[in-house]
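Supplementary Data S3. Sequence and structure tokens for construct A.
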Amino acid sequence: MAAPVARLIEQFHKLPGIGPKSAQRLAYYMVRMPAAEAEALAEAVLSVKERTTFCSQCQNITEHDPCSVCADERRDRTRVCVVQEPLDVLAMERTGVYNGLYHVLHGVIDPMSNIGPDDLRIRELLARLAGGAVEEVILGTNPNVEGEATAMYVQQLAAPLTGRVSRLARGLPVGGDLEYADDLTLARAFQGREQVT
């Protein structure tokens, strides 16, 4: 195998979710792709590194600081939804039901991967809350062990600094079957049940 191809496979394999076989397929695809497409891809990678930064307020990825959400004066500045990753902001915005601000942690507490609270953007969140303008912190981490642990940790730190800390509702997905739901999901569905009239 040619050294440049081996190096490319090695670099692809470093990406999350890319195993050795996928890295090989991507590398060999790039070998066969037209030079103009390869140059456009390389330019896009360099551009994202050169032109993007983290919003100084919410820590989301942005081209301009502050980001478009934080700069929008129409947003409810008394609520901050804490999420794990920038993609979570995009998912929330697609729903059109939330008009507050966000805070991106860039991960979750995960001792198995040596990720502790100091590796996340929690200090920046606490600095925002210390100003006293935020009345509610909404915890929007994923409903798994790491997400729950992170939510509990943030809740303990945020509660003294704000009027209310809430958690996104969890339970059965629309279109899901009870027989396929895990125990935790069913328990959360019972806990979060609503009265029907």
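Construct B, processed identically:
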Amino acid sequence: MIKLYEHPLSPYAQKVKLALYEKGLPFTAEVPDIFGGTSSEFVASNPRQEVPSLIDGEVHVFDSTVILEYLEDKWPQPAMLPATAQDRARVRMLEDLCDTYFEAINWALAEIRVFGRAKGEQAEQLVARAGKQIGGMYQRLERELGARTWFNGERFGWGDLSVWPYVTGSVGQGFPPSSGSRLAGWLERANQRDSTVQCMTAAAAALAGFQNLEAIVEQGLFKREYRDHRLEWMMRSGGVQIVLDGMAKGNIRFAHELT
């Protein structure tokens, strides 16, 4: 059986779980120990030491996009990708935009509101910046959706599972799509699917266990990953000192070095 190392709140892991549910593939899920007690199997499966990581017998696959491609190659039915080359390119670009731009916005909001990286006026400014960016992203998604029922086209698929984790993440942060918009209608339809219901249920249970996280981070017991688009967001949005403070306190990390 497929084994997935994941965290219910990770949008990257949610993408993979949505594909597994939609394809009807049975799997077991395990959350690695975020305090460093990760199993050798997890570490061996992913040099980044981040979720998701999938194990299928002797095959180890990391990176959410590569995992989706692996699932599509090995279990092509039901297909998550659209039929035409043009539409496949369209949803893959949509996935990339969400993974490398939208994700950082929600991640930054969690850094501020959950992990307490900023307080007072600075926090207010950063949250306002994030809210403006989410609004811009919603406008882009509205255009991408157009008159389609799903981002994928006529059926729920790759485009939808790539967008859903990030829109729901922004909703959870208090930034829902405008009432009556096409995007809001799409989200309502998507939230009725069994796959998304299972992801939402697991995420809600995980949120219930989020206690004293600010203190844990402050003590350096848990290092949040700052790299690529996340680091860029902080540096250009007014959070330079947050990065410097995190480096000084040792409670942020970058990609693992291979030694």
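Residues 85-113 form the longest helix (29 residues). The two ends are 31 Å apart (CA to CA).
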